[in-house]
User: What shape does this take?
Amino acid sequence: MSLHTEPVVVNIGPHHPSTHGVFRMRVTFDGENVQDVEPVIGYLHRGTEKLAEERQYSQVITLTDRLDYVASMTNNQAYVLSCEKLIDIEVPDRGKYLRTIAAELQRVASHLVGVGFFLAELGGFGGTALMYCFRERERILDMFEMLCGARITVSFMRIGGVFQDAPEEFWPALRKFLDEMPGYADELNKLIFESEIVQARTKNVSVISADQAIDASLTGPILRASGVPWDIRAAQPYDAYDQVKFDVITAQGGDNFDRFWVRMLEVEQSLKIIEQCYRDIRSGPVRSTTSLLFRPSPGEAYVPIEAPKGELGFYLVSDGSIAPYRCKIRSPSFISLTLFKEMLVGWKLADIIVSLGSLDFNMGEVDR
Amino acid sequence: MGEALAENIVYRHVYEFILSVFGSELAWLAYAIATFSVVLLVVNVLMLLATFYTWAERRLLGRFTNRLGPNRAGPFGLLQALADAVKLLTKEDIVPRSADRWVFNIAPIVMLGSVLMAMGVIPLGEKTFLADLNIGLLYLVAVSGLGSIAVLMAGYASANKFSTFGAMRAAAVLISYEIPLVMSLLSITILAGSMSLIEVVNSQTIPFLLVTPLAAFIFLTAMSAELNRSPFDITEGESEIVAGYLTEYSGMKFGTFMLAEFAALMVAGAVFAVLFLQGWKWAILPSHIWMLLKVGLFALLATWVRSTLPRLRPDQILTFAWKFLFPLSLINVIALSVQRLLLADEFGNLQQQDMWLMVVSNWILMVVAVPVLIKITNRKSGIPFGESAKFHVGKGV
Amino acid sequence: MPNLYQEVIFWALFAITVFSALLVVGQRDMFRSALALIVTFLAIAGIFAQMNAEFLAVAQVLIYVGAVSVLVIFAVMFTKDMPHSTRSTNLQPVSIVVVGLLFIALSWAIFQSQWNEMPAELPVFVESTLVDSSSQLGTAIIRDYVMAFETVGVLLLAAVVGALALVRDK
Amino acid sequence: MYGSGMLKAFGVTLQNFLRKPSTVQYPEERLQQHPRFRGQEFTWYEERCTGCASCAKYCPLGIIKIVTDPSGGDYQDGGSYRIDQFDIDQARCMYCGICVEACPYDALHMGTRFEAATYSREDLVITIDDLRARPKHPSAWFRPQLAKEGFDPFTEIADWREVGRETYFWHPKRPEMVPEDLAQKASSDGDYDKSQDND
Assistant: This one.
């Protein structure tokens, strides 16, 4: 016995409290069940790639800040690594370590934002976990301010190193953060991941299998949550990652819970990496080239890095002029949206939001 | 009803004053004005409490989330509610073009009305109540059902899909949680031997919270569902359906809805205090103060829950109601009936030592019944209860 | 003790009942019809309350307003083009005739009944009803007619189980 | 036991309830900024500026407009142009600081303020007169000489002589800091190159 009902098409976004920016979904609902999803992107398109092709290599660094604006450091890092490969220069050791520390701090900050919104998306009071996460992220941002004078749009890295050495007050602040952060992470575990309601809501929901994830070329925590131990930091080390030891976190479920849980565990690993960098960093120069303006010989370069959200890389083609001929951005957020429909169809309205959050994408990076 | 009102001190004074001024031939006027003034007093107490609570909840939530909360308007931000009201009043009143204008406008009034009507039977202190209905508990349930009609009206009339989602969810929650709620009220009736709220308070030689913890648990759960409070706030689920049935409301219509919601929480707190915490009774302090403190305790608890727990999915909420709460409330009612049958004397009254016996047996019942029922529900459906906190994490490379 | 105020209130409730009942059939918008039905139920509950049948009044609100009308609205929500769904059909003349006949029959029954005789048979019961109708009802249901009450309960349970069995996913 | 996870969550919120709030009351209290903070209100030292327009050239957004006049001054080696116009369109500025990094004469510094709300966009354009008139609170961003002297840009106003000069090639010569060296660092100041100071 069944009742004839008509599906409802609902536009979720671009203005919706939890679509992570101006993201729009055309969702076809049968009651509360999702029948079809169509992501609509492009509301934040700023033409970053074309802007980059109009600017000198060193000026593009400031544009990369604005791609994934919750993880500017890693954007900088991906871009300058590609540039360094293009003009073939070596970064001094201290510069490498500083970059690694900054990138890992940024990873912690980015994951904190992702995990902080988790509880809000599940429908808890929008401020609880978020405020706790932002409180800790604030300390990271304070450290970024010490490093480079800005908190979000950092422009910290330069081609050939970082722009300047860390000030002396940075190191005690980092030490304090490293000492206190595990306690706060434990608090977040208790608040979010051990709660039965959270587990009931997210376990076995929107499962992505390992094969599906690989086929869709997903990377980052989403891929690792499906059980694939692929981490570019371990597989193709860049900067100082070949000098540090850390575990590649994987989970087996591939569901919403595991995607967040992998992020939470990666925070732990990031702290471990920073700890080692803090121990191993030695005196020395932080930057090898001092010129803002250069003309690389014609060629191309692509260096992938493990950004908080997955593999990020800038494919640069040089024609010998002062600006890149082509700058293609391989952004993890955009590719994370590939499996969107497969993830959501068959689940409920309430699950859409959580699954969306579990991808932890950023519209600045999706639309570029 | 009128007799109970006549005991009211405000009523008596106003009535006598008007009689003394106009003479006894205008008794109907005195009756009308005196009744009106008492009703006005009670309604205003409720409204004042609700507006105060909007501030208090935001301050408390602020502290729970490691912030300060509103503290700018007036000392400690106490005038924040006033500032909000002024802001809402000066906002443009927008009605969507395709909305059913008439229903759209009347919905907030129905919502507030249902809450105010519930206030009619609740004793706010010793000898401070409007009416002592002998079916007070049923009246409360009946009147609170009206609020859901208002939600349905708002959801339909807004001509917005998010609003419709919210309204349908509200209806589903109402139908499901009314039953455990009534069951928990029934267990109170069994204990007190009356449905009058005054009688319920008078019969509480021991707080019923101790005597029947299961009923208190069911009441709190069902009430938070009826009030759209976390973790059952799917009706407004701001992360999913924007603001549910409130999506299209603006200005003071929105304000009326919010006021009604907070007032409903106050009413629920008062009901909880009356049913489970001996109402106005306690030592030393005046009865009204005790009542206020108990309502405040309930509000604090509600805020704490709101700050901590995320929301369940609608299907999980319904499963929770039908497969867990409903059997649990049946067990409780049956257990209490049997206890009363065994323990009551020939006049059907319960002595205090019998009550203590019930305290012991009911706590044992709770400790046994809840885990067993959870196990059964978990095995059968597995939906509302996830696994307990065990993580399976493999390390790669 | 029918006095002026009670008369006024009764006639007001009566007017509301009749008017909203007319609205139920006269509205084009089915949702508004359902709302008018709720108003009718409420007004009838008011009449019950005025007759000191408080339990009945509250039960009316609880069951009809709280539950039945919500189900009605649920059902109404399934209709297509809700705002214009109530249309007159060619059965209108037939229905007018049927309603007219029903009205005549009811009126005849009302005027034929010997109303004056009835209180004479049940004076004690009426008096006690005025005092505490709900406890009287409770006693009647749980003590005197408990068998019938439980039978109805079992019947309803069977109906619920049957309904569940019908809609269950195979 | 089932439900223990939720109870722990309640414990966490209670713990935070009793903790000191992590926010501050903004207009009355302010968070401490780092001297490197890149803010608004560029600090410009006209005496040091030669009008080379490096800043305008390196600005990724092209929002700096410099009009110079070679007729008046001696613009040969070591000399400077007369600067007629120096507009920074703050409304489009993203405070990346590349103009400061590009300035070869340490004439342009980032500012330290961040409250520049205005009612119209035109008010956000910093003209040369604004630059001259504004109190000089130079940020230590890319100006390590300021950080080295312990200059506090939030309270002090720095004269152009006080901010000093740093060669552009200071990076390799910098004594490096590791956490253990911090105490030592405090005593080993002043070994940067001041030979190119042309004040």
